[in-house]
Amino acid sequence: MLLGFSTLALLVCFSCCWLLVLGEGETASCSNIVALGHRTDNISITEFGGVGDGRTLNTKAFREAIYRVQHLPREGGTLLYVPPGVYLTEPFNLTSHMTLYLAAGAVIMATQDSLNWPLIAPLPSYGRGRERPGGRYMSFIHGDGVQDVVITGENGTIDGQGDAWWNKWRQGTLQFTRPNLVEFVNSRDIIISNVIFKNSPFWNIHPVYCSNVVVRYVTILAPRDSPNTDGIDPDSSSNVCIEDSYISTGDDLVAVKSGWDEYGIAYGRPSSDITIRRITGSSPFAGIAIGSETSGGVENVLAEHINLYNMGIGIHIKTNTGRGGFIKNITMSHVYMEEARKGIRISGDVGDHPDDKFDANALPLVKGVTIKNVWGMKVLQAGLIQGLRNSPFTDICLYDINLHGVTGPRTPPWKCSDVSGFAHQVSPWPCSELSSNQQGSCANYS
């Protein structure tokens, strides 16, 4: 049976009610940047021959259903319903004004056969595939130049079956860059909610050159040893809202990016106005990251109410010589971390280069980073802030930070170079480069 709008509305209301009982001070939401539309037309994948037995290949069914949505448009758009079952399929493209709705117990599963996996051009802000020169494999679920698209449901699953791809990476047999699980390119007004994403071949959710994107109430899962399985990577995108989600992967949980070295500098599209709120997760890499590909610039990022467990690094802002670009007006607050190799790292020597054509004189600007109200337990090293000699990091503002650790006698709690800023009520006390006297723009954050 197809779900009518009234059922969808009840689900949305249930989600809203769940948000309201999260607790005092944690009810703020940015999800209103994209309005949830009323789909007046409902179709089911079974009408197009979809079979959820986990063996039948459903590529034709998905492509024909989406062709119907695109070429027989209905006022208000169309909902494509996926009932319970396991629907094996090759990659497919979404279209505008549609909702992909996964019922409880529905699984859209990627085939592991890469022979028929489409190849697409590299992103212009990267100049090549992120892992290999040349093109890249299209994401499993892909949208290019679309608007008003929703991926949602009753916590159904999108399964990338990534282990075959991870093994190719480990064995060095990849010919092209692995596919993301879900990617939107040059798109706007996107909502992703109430879905489980698991075992992505590469990054999980990747909005690039997009605006007005909401990702909330999602669960993202991949083994800790799965390579480069970032959770959510907003990339050269603006007005992005990431909220109320659980992420446990093999790489950064959320990483804000904007292009790679000379290609990102030339493309020149920053990531801006990004809110990350109420994220819980675990990773051997970073919880909330910016970079390292930031050549188009990153500004106006707010991350708050973050809970991290068994982490490599809690907060990581990372760039490199040759990146150019800027990282500015970043605020991270109310972060709890437990068992982390490093609490806070802001570094100018992280990440590789696409080729040998990068400009070594293209130095990044890192300015106006505020980190406050952070509590950590079992943190091996409190922090490392390593700027660049010819481009020091400035206005680094630390407030009310307690990182309780098991620092050894040979490991200083903080290590800093080429940085200036301010620290207030930070324990263990940070490096001398961060003054206890109010100065610079840090005065604006007290």
TrEMBL record:
Signal peptide positions (record): 1-23
GO BP term (any one): carbohydrate metabolic process
Protein name listed in UniProt: Pectate lyase superfamily protein domain-containing protein
Subcellular location: Secreted, Cell wall
A GO term, aspect molecular function: polygalacturonase activity
InterPro entries xrefs: GH28_Enzymes, Glyco_hydro_28, PbH1, Pectin_lyas_fold, Pectin_lyase_fold/virulence
Hydrolase listed as a keyword: yes
Family the UniProt entry places it in: Belongs to the glycosyl hydrolase 28 family.
Pfam families named in the record: Glyco_hydro_28
Source domain of life: Eukaryota
SUPFAM superfamilies: Pectin lyase-like (SSF51126)
Gene: LOC100818820
This protein's UniProt keywords: Cell wall, Glycosidase, Hydrolase, Secreted, Signal
